[in-house]
Amino acid sequence: MESIQLAFPDWLIIALYFGFVLGIGAYLKKYTKDESDFFLAGRKSTSWVSGLAFLSANLGALELLGMTGNTFQYGMYVAHFYWIGAIPAMLFLAIYMMPFYYSSRINSIPGYLKLRFDEKTRVLNAISFGVMTVLVSGINLYAMALVLHTFLGWNWDASIWVSAATVAAYVTMSGMLSAMFTEIIQFFLIWFGLFLVAVLGIIEIGGIDEVFARVPTAYSALWSTSANAADNGMLVTWSGIVLGLGFVLSFGYWTTDFLVVQRALVAKDLRAARQTPILASFFKMAVPFLVIIPGLIAYILANDPTSGFSLLQDGGVTNYDSALPLLVARYYPTGLVGLGITALLAGFMAGQAGNISAFNTVWTYDIYRSLFKKDASSAHLMWMGRVATIAGILISIVTAYWAKTFPSIMDYMQAIFSWVNAPLFATMLLGMFVRWITPNGAFWGLLAGMGSSFTLFLAVKFNWIEKSVITLSSVSSDMAANFWRAWWAWLICFGVTIAVSFVTKRKPDEELVGLVKGLTKEAATDNVPWVKTSEFYAVLSLVVLIVLNIYFW
Amino acid sequence: MKPIWYFVGLILLSMGAVVLASGLYRLVVPSTAQTVLQELRPDIWWGAIMILAGGIFFFTNRKPVSE
Q1: CA–CA separation, A306 and A295 (whole Å)
Q2: In B, which residues are within 8 Å of A12 by CB distance?
Q3: A1, exposed or middle or buried, with CB in 10 Å at 0-12, 13-18, 19+?
Q4: Residue B65, in any domain of the structure
Q5: Rounded Cα–Cα distance for residues B35 and A325 (Å)
Q6: A202, A389, A488, B55: which is deepest, by most CB within 10 A?
Q7: Chain B contacts of A181, Cβ < 8 Å?
Q8: What's the confidence (pLDDT) of residue A91?
Q9: Does residue B18 fall inside a structural domain?
Q10: What is the span of the domain harbouring residue B49?
């Protein structure tokens, strides 16, 4: 395709973005005085700051491009990822899990595993999380270079090195503080940079009712086509959606992935920490306006011969991820194009900064201090955090070039979340709510869950077993296999953890105070009017979720 | 320390100003590059909305917050 041409105002906006993030990093450096500031932003954030950073850490450019493309393929079904596939888990984290995380004053999720179980479970999770995080960061870097090269004709090496060096500079200067600041700026840039696509698309089609009138019925349905896998484009039944996506994958990600939970841990108090995912849930439910509507508009235009709109073809294969950039090119004149590109750049770079800031924390606290230097001073830990930032960025760059040489690595990466997060959710759930779960039970359960997920992935990938064996359906997609593999990994971890706990030694109750339900003082809500409680806002969020699901049933 | 909302305001103000200025320039010197719905002048009103939103954030958050 012909590259999108940028003019002076577009370049000026991109330059402003780079100048701002570097300037913010330099400005915040003087406020980054010790390890607490560097890794946990001083634990002074309000619920609004933490809430928007919590959401933005997940709202990357890859997701925006991918989900718009998925909507082109599957229609409204994609909204499951934003609604049932996120909201219940976010609310569960806020109401039931945050009191344990926050009150135990941990620095990271592996830190909780150390307190609740033992060192080996902590190190197992820290290593798997660290590897996952830098690999995902590298894949994001590769994807960013691919998008910039394909749509703007930018040089591969320059895209990778300039963006990585910028992220390295501002995260090294002020750590978590600058990562969160840039995530919030990214949130606003994404909304101001891309929401206009939906607005102009609706105007061109002739109104939102006309948009839904011009797509097939299955494209505007969430649940009415889910009884039979063959009735919806995603080839997933409601049970796969509920168990795989809505329960295991969603809860596994939103309640245990340190990348997002870290944003709540930096809140100034427990109430702000609990409000963090609840506030984020309202904005999460609005994201479909950024991706679903443009996806449907792209579908309508591509099926209208008079529109002159078609998706990119890569060697005869439709590139669904091209939907959003092509809509930007269709509607945005000079100046706005720069804003749209900057929104995507901000999404890529803030996502990378989020991954790196989570990596440097886990590396420094849960691997370096835990295994190599138990008596490290605060200044030494901050120095190590900066070294880990540079090292993490360099590993990401190597991964990006690796992905460029072997693009099939992308297939493996897509499944990585179900290797690490799905079984971890079983460990966390049992650890927080069942006091007789033992350290050995947790360790072997986690290992069995991660191992089984990885083995099932390889078994399907290399046709050792039929996909239908794990999806329990004669028709299924790769996405359905992902959902079901997560479910089985969770179940195996859950079962092995319980079984091993029956025959191994538990920790005494006095060591579990503040870490397990029943041994922990309930979150105090005294002197707070009921309309200001976290529970009230969680119910409100749940009501909005139910209304949306019924409306688009 | 300046609150994050101050920086959000500053970046929306500056980028909105560039988008608006670019739209006004195109009004005077029409571009040869055509986009769909360009007759609606989205750059002008979207730039103005960004300036308004940025201005609210910027001018209501100039006071430093405690470190």
Answers
A1: 18
A2: 18
A3: middle
A4: no
A5: 14
A6: A389
A7: 4, 7
A8: 95
A9: yes
A10: 4-60
Nearest to A535 by CA among A526, A549, A525, A545: A525
Size of interface A-B (CB pairs under 8 A): 93
Asked if residue B33 is part of any domain, the answer here is yes
Residue B31: which of A180, A333, A336 has the nearest Cβ?
A333
- The number of domains in chain B is 1
CA separation for the pair B18, A20 (Å, rounded): 15
Q: Within 13 Å and on the Cβ side, how many CA atoms surround A250?
A: 23
> Per residue of chain A (553 residues), what is the pLDDT tens digit?
667 788 899 999 999 999 999 999 999 888 888 888 888 888 888 999 999 999 988 887 778 888 888 888 888 888 888 998 899 999 999 998 898 888 888 888 999 999 999 999 999 999 999 988 888 888 888 888 888 887 788 888 888 898 889 989 989 998 888 889 989 999 999 999 999 999 999 999 999 999 989 988 778 788 777 777 667 767 777 877 787 777 888 888 899 888 888 889 999 988 999 999 999 999 999 999 899 999 999 999 999 989 888 888 877 788 888 888 899 989 999 999 999 999 988 888 888 888 898 899 999 999 999 889 888 898 999 999 999 999 999 999 998 888 777 655 555 665 676 778 888 999 999 999 999 999 999 999 999 999 998 888 888 878 888 777 777 766 666 767 777 888 888 999 999 999 999 999 999 988 888 888 887 776 555 577 888 888 999 999 999 999 999 988 8
Tell me which residue of B47, B63, B7 sits closest to A16, measured CA to CA: B7
Task: Tell me if B52 is assigned to some domain.
Answer: yes
User: Which of A27, A192, A335 comes nearest B12 by C-beta?
Assistant: A192
Q: B44 and chain A: CB distance < 8 Å anywhere?
A: no
Mutation to test the B interface, candidates A50, A180, A188, A268, most B Cβ within 10 Å: A188
CA A177 – CA A170 distance, rounded (Å):
10
Provide the CA A257 distance to its chain's centre, in angstroms: 8
| Rounded Cα distance, A153 and A132, in Å | 30
Q: Which residue of A has its CA nearest to B47?
A: A336
Residues from chain B that touch A200, judged by Cβ atoms under 8 A, are 36-37, 40, 42
Q: So what's the pLDDT on residue B67?
A: 47
Q: What's the token pair of residue A359? A: 């990596």
Token couple for B12: 């929306």
